[in-house]
Amino acid sequence: MSASIWKYPLAPKVGHRMPVGAQILTVQMQDGSPMMWAQVDPDAPKEDRTFIAKPTGGYFDPSGMEYIGTFQTDGLVFHVFEQKL
Question: Domains in the chain: how many in total?
């Protein structure tokens, strides 16, 4: 297996086609935009994954979600979850 680090942009709700087994490493701001980095096997088959960013203080149903990380922007704090089906 070979490994690489890939970067993915984040939004309130975003889907990404990622190599199977991609491991999320961190979420942070880069040049004013929220980003997520993952260690991937570039040769692995791809799968669709969905990520949701929720602001601090907001209400949501956490069922079927797995916490990924937190980032801050413009005085707001967002918490990123992966939607597991």
Answer: 1
